Amino acid sequence: MVALQDIEAFILAGGKSQRMGEEKGLALLKGLPMVTYIIKTLQSVPLGVKLISANIDYNQFGLLVYADSKQGKGHMGGLMTALEQTCKPYVLLMGCYMPFVSKGTVRYLIENSQDHKINVRINPILAIYPKSIIPHLKVHIENNQLKMQDFISSQDHYIVKMDYFERLEPNVLTNINSSEDLKYWNMK
């Protein structure tokens, strides 16, 4: 198991937001910016939380915000930025579009993780990554191999089974990626 004190959380809040039509993390869900739900969840674990975005509007949350060190490289660039900016041996990476992830889900992921491996559910944007992958990640980015699943498959990894939480909380791993998704969840 990876110890809680060895992990720092980073929320990916950059990207083009083409399907959403607006900045995903700042889009209002039940009257609050979507990223607010994730920040509160991660802080309740408790984890230190930082954001990755070039948008200065994220400064309103009182957290450190970093722009991608590798511009235009998507999630892989965000992961590299997180690994470069943390002083901890592990990074918990999470997308700003996952507002229903619970404290229990995050703690379960941590408690069922394995040292020195990428610990992932099927979704690579709710995962724990060790700093030791930086050299391999750098090669993938330099070669423009930007698919997270391909990168994870090429590394020592462990898939954490999350079936229990998906049964208990069916929406816990829901991604809100489009304006239609947002409208649906605002009406629910």
TrEMBL record:
Positions of the MobA-like NTP transferase domain: 9-143
EC numbers: 2.7.7.77
GO molecular function: GTP binding; metal ion binding; molybdenum cofactor guanylyltransferase activity
Named cofactor requirement(s): Mg(2+)
Keywords: Cytoplasm, GTP-binding, Magnesium, Metal-binding, Molybdenum cofactor biosynthesis, Nucleotide-binding, Nucleotidyltransferase, Transferase
GO cellular component, one term: cytoplasm
Keyword Nucleotide-binding: yes
One Pfam family, short name: NTP_transf_3
Keyword Nucleotide-binding on entry: yes
Residues annotated as binding GTP: 12-14, 24, 68
One GO BP annotation of this record: Mo-molybdopterin cofactor biosynthetic process
Reaction catalysis annotation: Mo-molybdopterin + GTP + H(+) = Mo-molybdopterin guanine dinucleotide + diphosphate
Lineage top rank: taxon: Bacteria
UniProt xrefs under Gene3D superfamilies: Spore Coat Polysaccharide Biosynthesis Protein SpsA, Chain A (3.90.550.10)
Localization, UniProt: Cytoplasm
Functional description taken from the UniProt entry: Transfers a GMP moiety from GTP to Mo-molybdopterin (Mo-MPT) cofactor (Moco or molybdenum cofactor) to form Mo-molybdopterin guanine dinucleotide (Mo-MGD) cofactor.
Family of this protein: Belongs to the MobA family.
Record-given protein name: Probable molybdenum cofactor guanylyltransferase
Species annotation: Aquiflexum balticum DSM 16537
